[in-house]
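Box S1 | Example of a co-folding query
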Amino acid sequence: MPDIIDHALAFARETFAGDASGHDYWHTFRVWKLARRLAEAEGADILICELAALLHDVDDAKLSPETYAGKLRARSFLESESVDEAAIARILHIIGQVSYKGSDSETPDSLEGMCVQDADRLDAIGAIGIARTFAFGGSRGRTLWDPEEKPRTEINARNYQTGGGCTVNHFYEKLLLLRDLMNTKTAREIAEARHRYMVTYLDEFFAEWQGVR
Ligand code: ADP
Ligand code: NI
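Box S1 (continued) | Returned holo structure for adenosine-5'-diphosphate
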């Protein structure tokens, strides 16, 4: 493994120590693994994908609002590793396109960006996605589900992080939409099984809620 990957893993581990909102180090670790798998399958630049994946959340708007706009933590890490400015610009550009913002989400303009966005979104669905979503809801003091609260239908950059009610609604506001938003064929295939798993999970959740199973 190149030294820079080792260093980026250590940097991510330091940055996310103690996070309990589903954005911990192991989220970054999984996104890195998936991004590399997608890059290999899709023929993208593997090192650019790996570095963008490893750094994609270090300047997250929620976790580090003061460095978000300039992607300052990612930049200073890459500069400290003597990465050339052209590669830094490519990586920061990808990171800026990854995040989910409902109807304001961006479609990456590079194959590498598509792989990293798909990897981040794959980690939001399936068994891991379910666990992360309830962890996030718990970290914000949200109830599991409130049958009287309907999911919102219009999600955009402005209202995605604000408002929002019970955690199960997040499945309808984001998670169940992700399968059809994958950029690459490889990610679409992986998303299919993860999506089905969530549908089965919700079916069981509601059946137990009604007391019929
Ligand atoms: P992205 O990874 O595209 O930047 P976020 O950081 O907003 O997206 O969300 C990452 C994960 O955090 C979501 O997939 C979900 O598991 C959890 N999460 C975010 N917002 C909510 C919410 N309102 N309710 C429950 N979980 C959420
Ligand atoms: Ni992420």
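The pocket of adenosine-5'-diphosphate (ligand 1) is lined by residues 22, 99-100, 120, 124, 129, 132-133, 136-137, 164, 167, 170 (CB under 6 Å). The two ends are 49 Å apart (CA to CA).
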